[in-house]
Specification:
Order of helices and strands: EEEHEHEE
Largest sheet: 6 strands, mixed
Strand order of the largest sheet: 1-2-3-4-6-5
Number of helices: 2
Oligomer: single chain
Structural class: alpha+beta
Shape: globular
Number of strands: 6
Distance between the termini: 19 Å
Number of domains: 1
CATH architecture: 3-Layer(aba) Sandwich
CATH class: Alpha Beta
C-alpha cells in the first residue's frame, strides 16, 4: 500500500467488459488497516461479481501480510452491499450514526471488518 493512504482502484472485468470497480483507500501503514468500497453497474448486479472481487482482494491483502484489517462501511438500506460484505466473510461490528452526509442529508453507516486471522486464503 502506498504510504500516502490514497489507495488503489481496480476494475471488475469479465470477457464482456468492465462490470464494476473495487477500491482500497484510507490506508494506515502504522496500524495496517484500510477501507474497501465497491460498485457494480446495475445491469451486472446479482451475479456475484462484487463478492468475488471482495473475497479475492481481501484474501490477497490480508493473506500476504500487507494489511492486518480491512474495514467496509455501507448504508443500512443498501441491502445488496450488506449481503456482499457478509458473503465475503466480513463481520458486522456496529453502526456509525450520522457517519455520512450527502445531498439527501445525514446517514448512518453499518461497519464491517475482516482481520487477517479470519480471511479466506
Amino acid at each position: 500500500m502506498p504510504r500516502s493512504g490514497q489507495g488503489i482502484h481496480l476494475a471488475m472485468a469479465t470477457p464482456d467488459g468492465i462490470v464494476g470497480s473495487i477500491s482500497v483507500y484510507n490506508a494506515d501503514p502504522q496500524t495496517g488497516t484500510a477501507e474497501v468500497g465497491y460498485g457494480v453497474h446495475p445491469e451486472h448486479r446479482g451475479r456475484g461479481y462484487a463478492t468475488e472481487a471482495l473475497r479475492g482482494l481481501a484474501g490477497h491483502l490480508l493473506g500476504t501480510g500487507v494489511l492486518n484489517k480491512i474495514r467496509l462501511r455501507a448504508r443500512p438500506d443498501n441491502i445488496a452491499s450488506l449481503r456482499v460484505a457478509e458473503k465475503a466473510g466480513f463481520v458486522k461490528e456496529g453502526v456509525e450514526p450520522g457517519a455520512e452526509v450527502d445531498e439527501d442529508g445525514v446517514h448512518d453507516l453499518v461497519v464491517f471488518g475482516l482481520v487477517r486471522e479470519d480471511a479466506r486464503p
